[in-house]
Design a protein that fits this description.
This protein has 15 helices and nine strands. It is mainly alpha-helical.
Length: 652
């Protein structure tokens, strides 16, 4: 640390993730010390454990070949499943322990910054929370290792049982073969016997045919059950694929809807903060114009043609016709119904008079032009401007929806009498603010709808699993019995035929004798089971050793300081203790991370092995032939771990 002044204790303890721990192992002043710590006290003996677990996986693969279609197949499946669970537990626990260790190092960083809170941080957070999580993970590792070790012991016992049963089957087949040979001799002797022996053979044939029919019915029933299971699996996979397709479609629709909604929200946001465009200016002018023309005096006082008089109704009915602007009707001045209603009936009023507020008074012709345009506005509210001089020439032009005054002309806006253009401009500003507030409200509602879409959860329905098919062994044995009965029936029929014919004609005919292939295949299966038994025995010892390794796992590194030690220490003493404790935890995290990376690879190999299809006959022969090498390497590795680390393994 002193050799590199840029690396402070605060920076060293500022670990955020696994990459942060790996980066600390590359710091020149820390690298030798951390490597030494990993060599002195490796977590799970990383390299040795990875090699040993890989060999155990190979041994279980070899044993699986021997237990195929044997009584030990279920226990083999259970042992491999428990071993896979162990590997998942090891990797998951290693990841969680690394995360908790990172959090503990961060706690040391905080305590180093605030020494007066060191006892509180170490006690309440590190010891009572983070270290307890590490203890739980290690306890789960030990439990999983114990289950795997127990499953291996059960597997080894079942393999021994299967081997014994298979050897008995070999003896039974050999005995059956010898019996068939004797039947041949009997058949040759029966040619010389009388018809009484023929009747006896017919009775035996009848009994065999009954057994054969019963066996065929049983095989047919079992095959139907197997077909039901296969069809169920096919339906389940189809349903699962359909559920996945529906899930992807829902997700695609949701993403599309979110994209459209997000684009709409962005457009609303741009309109809020963008400058008014020509359309806004035109709307402002139109609103201001309508506002002016919808004011009127009431009937009681027709002379009150003020700017703040009652408003005209936006639509009113007169003589059976609906109107949206001031009308003459029977009056000489445009009028409208007002928005006020009373019990005496509806009110009406004359529409406002308009003028042009020029700075200097126009001449008589200009006044006449203004009056003409004002009269036209009473019937066409889109007229809002007057020009009386253009380029020094007297003119009279009435403008519709004028937005601004031309520079080289004498032009003004038509406004109600007594109202200035400033008042209209104020009204425009009010309209713009109302429009902007409305857009803000639309933008807020749009964001809420977008958040609701983002929080929408899409689930996928899982297909219900089919009832497992567990009668393979029964189907195999029944089929074998049926085959044997067929041979016996055929033999008995041959004997009867020989008894019916003349001895001299049937001397060269011999009864059908079963092939020796059945015995040879069974003997080969016995040899495979012997290899499986030896492989499971070595695997059992390896798993027992792994169980011992898990039992010796340290729940915390050496050098950790308890929270009570900080209570009576000054600031310098606290920081010194934090350095010792923090670096110990940092080394512990680096140690666990090394084991995690090694064991993750083995976990993937175990998963691939369990989930892959059953090996072909050639691959199975190759695995059986490699058993001797794998067993020898595993024993050497176990012996090396025992001698180097002084570990022992106690099994019943």
């Amino acid at each position: 640390m002193k050799a590199n002044r840029n690396i402070t204790l605060d920076k060293v303890f500022a670990v955020k993730n696994v990459k942060g721990i790996e980066a600390r192992t590359k710091i020149a002043c820390l690298r030798p010390w951390l490597k030494q710590k990993i060599r002195e006290d490796p977590f799970l003996y990383g390299v040795f454990s990875a090699k040993l677990l890989k060999k155990i996986r190979e041994l279980l693969d070899i044993a699986a070949v021997g237990c195929h279609r044997e009584s030990c197949a279920d226990s083999m499946l259970d042992a491999r499943s428990k071993f896979q669970d162990l590997m998942y537990t090891v990797v998951r626990a290693s990841n969680n322990i690394v995360k908790e260790t990172i959090t503990i190092v961060k706690a040391h960083r905080y305590a180093n910054r605030y020494p007066d809170k060191a006892a509180w941080v170490m006690g309440k957070h590190v010891e009572k929370k983070y270290m307890q999580n590490i203890i739980k993970e290690i306890a789960q590792l030990k439990t999983s290792a114990g289950k795997t070790d127990s499953a291996a012991q059960v597997l080894h016992q079942n393999v021994l049982t299967s081997t014994t049963e298979k050897r008995k089957t070999v003896k039974r087949y050999k005995k059956l073969l010898e019996q068939m040979k004797k039947n041949k001799e009997i058949a040759e002797g029966m040619i010389k016997d009388n018809e009484n022996k023929k009747d006896k053979a017919i009775k035996v044939l009848d009994e065999l045919e009954k057994k054969l029919d019963a066996g065929k019915r049983k095989v047919e029933k079992l095959m139907k059950e197997q077909d039901v299971y296969n069809k169920c699996e096919k339906r389940r996979r189809a349903k699962q694929q359909k559920s996945l397709k529906e899930y992807n479609e829902k997700k695609k629709n949701l993403d599309s809807e979110m994209s459209i909604k997000s684009k709409k929200c962005m457009e609303l946001q741009q309109k809020i903060y963008s400058a008014p465009d020509d359309e806004d200016e035109e709307n402002d002018e139109e609103e201001c114009s309508l506002y002016r023309c919808t004011k009127a005096g009431n009937r009681a006082d027709v002379n009150m043609k003020l700017f703040n008089g009652p408003c005209c109704r936006s639509s009113f009915r007169y003589n059976g016709t609906w109107h949206q602007k001031c009308i003459l009707g029977k009056q000489t001045t445009p009028w409208c119904y007002t928005i006020e209603y009373k019990s005496t009936g509806r009110h009406w009023g004359f529409c406002l008079e308009f003028t042009c507020p020029f700075e200097d008074s126009p001449d008589a012709e200009g006044e006449q032009c203004i009056k003409s345009c004002a009269d036209q506005k009473k019937l066409d509210d889109s007229i809002n401007g007057v020009t009386i001089r253009k380029s020094g020439i007297e003119v009279c032009e009435c403008h519709k929806k004028m937005l601004s005054k031309p520079a080289s002309s004498k032009t003004c806006f038509l406004v109600p009498a007594g109202v200035s253009e400033n008042e209209c401009e104020s009204r425009r500003e009010e309209i713009r603010q109302e429009r902007k507030d409305a857009r803000r409200k639309l933008y807020t509602n749009c964001n809420k709808e977008l958040q609701q879409l983002e929080s929408t959860e899409i689930t996928m329905e899982m297909a219900k699993p089919c009832t497992a098919w567990t009668k393979d062994q029964e189907l195999f044995e029944t089929s074998l019995d049926v085959s044997t009965l067929k041979i016996q029936v055929k033999t008995q029929k041959g004997l009867i035929a020989l008894a019916e014919e003349n001895v001299s004609k049937d001397k060269q005919k011999k009864p059908v004798v079963p092939s020796k292939d059945m015995v040879q295949e069974t003997e080969e299966a016995v040899q495979d089971l012997v290899v499986a038994e030896e492989s499971t025995l070595v695997a059992k010892k390896g798993l027992c050793l792994m169980k011992s390794i898990f039992q010796e796992l340290k729940e915390k590194p050496s050098g950790v300081v308890k929270s009570v030690v900080f209570e009576d220490k000054n600031e310098d003493q606290v920081k010194k203790l934090l350095v010792i404790s923090g670096f110990s935890w940092l080394a512990y995290g680096a140690n666990v991370n090394v084991a995690r990376k090694l064991l993750a690879k083995v976990k993937q190999e175990v998963t691939d092995s369990v989930t892959s299809a059953r090996p072909s006959r050639e691959e199975g022969r190759r695995l059986i032939s490699s058993a001797a090498t794998v067993k020898r390497d595993t024993r050497q590795l176990v012996g090396e771990i025992w001698s180097k680390h002084g570990l022992t393994c106690n099994q019943e």
